[in-house]
Model the fold of this input.
Amino acid sequence: IAGITQAPTSQILAAGRRMTLRCTQDMRHNAMYWYRQDLGLGLRLIHYSNTAGTTGKGEVPDGYSVSRANTDDFPLTLASAVPSQTSVYFCASGKGGNRNTGELFFGEGSRLTVL
Amino acid sequence: AQSVTQLGSHVSVSEGALVLLRCNYSSSVPPYLFWYVQYPNQGLQLLLKYTSAATLVKGINGFEAEFKKSETSFHLTKPSAHMSDAAEYFCAVSRSGAGSYQLTFGKGTKLSVIP
Done:
């Protein structure tokens, strides 16, 4: 079934540890995004990638890094996790370029708890 | 900068009653507007979108929304609520940035349906 796969589904992490959230899509979409969802704040964009090999910062990029080595994969890394990074993280993709109207397709989310 | 305001973080309706979820946007250019729905422990899925064609947009599950430029609104309605409509709803506006489009989300409205 075509779509976006995120891993892990859920993770508890000690503060200071490094963590990578994985995201893979099989729709051959050019653009990919990472959002975090927090109660009362909605979804906020962390980082995005318009196409393989390029990345950009969103609204809340501090403490996170991304890479886009190929079209399908867009991992999000927390170099040294802090409790304020406790959140639900969603990966999304879109067609990108001139065909993109902003419609995004979302993964099921990764729930991260930093203690 | 573009932004979205959703009026009411929580709306309760009786089963069979009208559903009205309010969304106002600000945008310096004609926007693309979206409503997404999130069921518990799931990712977001597209409900409907406005992309400068018809101002009355019909979506899935009997929902529709009307784009009103003069009021900068894009309210979501459904004539008769069903128990299965209980979910969180997000309004979003799309903006062009550096070769792609990025969604800015509202903070969400949680819809409860009372039997």
Observations:
- Chain A touches chain B through 31 residues (CB under 8 Å).
- The radius of gyration of chain A is 13 Å.
- Chain A has a mean pLDDT of 92.
